[in-house]
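Predict the structure of Nitroreductase.
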Amino acid sequence: MSAAAVTSPDLHEALHRLLAERWTCRQFLPEPVPRDTIEQVLALAQRTPSWCNTQPWHVIVTEGAATDRMRTRLLEHLRTNPGQPDFPFPTQYTGVYQERRRECGKQLYTSLGIERGDHQGTGRQMLRNFELFGAPHVAIITTEADLGVYGAIDCGLYLNSFLLAAQSLGLAAAPQAALAGYSGFLRDHFGLPDSRRVVVGVSFGHPDTAHPANGFRTTRANTDSAVTWHST
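Done. Here is the predicted structure for Nitroreductase.
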């Protein structure tokens, strides 16, 4: 089918499917993704728009022994070092934001059989973030410090493109602020210059669809709760 034969409804439906079916994977299979498939994801994500076309993102992608080495060193690091994110984490969650956060957490812990008050169980699951949920690959997305918050916003757009590109190729991914919480470690581990700021990490690979951590899907609020119309 030629590009001219693809109608707007076809494109709308394709985008709708990608957005509706994308989910955060919390357990991966160990098999690596072929390099050419990862390069297809990166090529699609590179089409992301940015302010003045600055394209501030730079992405580190690990594979093979490099993923295992980062995973091992990060787990060792966090045992004795506090997190130091480049961008401040939320100061608190209130109202509907707290409700949505709790709903997501409840779905995850229920799927894993972790009961309320089981601090050991929740702690073990929290550590899975730093084990990359068993993923064979991780992408670390950074921006230039001088570009400030808008460089980070552009990287957020890039992140979404990356996630949808992975979904379109049958891969799964987990965007992780938890990894960005140890930006100093990542800068040191990967030899990043001080001018780079870590925005987010993404574990990715093939999903373990039989694992209970992957057995739920989060909800979305309707547009009425997110949009205010002004007509006059």
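The chain has a mean pLDDT of 96.
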